[in-house]
Amino acid sequence: MKKYLIAALVFFGLCAPALASDTPQSLIQDTSVQVLDMLKKEDGKNTAKVRGQVEALVIPKFDFTRMTALAVGRGWRDATPEQKQALTREFQTMLVRTYSGTMTRFKNAQIDVKPNVLLNNEGREATVRSEVVVPSSKDNKPVAIDYVLYKTAAGWKVFNVSVEGASLVTVYRNQFGDEIRKGGIDGLIRALQDKNAKLTRGAA
């Protein structure tokens, strides 16, 4: 999961207030610049105020229900509406707290958003490729990060992120599958609640 922490920089950059971003590529590009400016202004501080700003901004730009359904996989179909709501809430909380807690490490990162966007599903889905270099990393090699979005009436929304070809929702699907086999959907919900409780204590 370490490389996903690098992805956090742009991952949460998407939540910044958008400029005239009517394409997937411009959304990634414009908001990446804004979040870097924010991190530099805060000098890499990871305060409750900064985390709160990130949480308030990130939620509207992502379809957490779709992300959760993909991460849970086959078990999603068997979940009750109440369980689906609980899963989405806990997964969203875990993602936001995990990545907002690490994004300030990357204030000096360099982001190269590629101009060639891959469109699928008759133009309703888009994959935006980017490379992120963190100068403080050991090898200083760029990390390839792909953002998968789909077009809604409210604009483009992100529902998956891939780092070096490894899909975020697939990584979590493997973990969630183990929890479901051990304790069912309710067991997964409890596991997510426990994880979020630890994240809350760590951020305090």
TrEMBL record:
InterPro entries: MlaC/ttg2D, Tgt2/MlaC_sf. It comes from Crenobacter intestini. Residues 1-20 form the signal peptide. Keywords: Signal. Pfam families: MlaC. Gene3D superfamilies: Tgt2/MlaC (3.10.450.710). This is ABC transporter substrate-binding protein. It comes from the Bacteria.
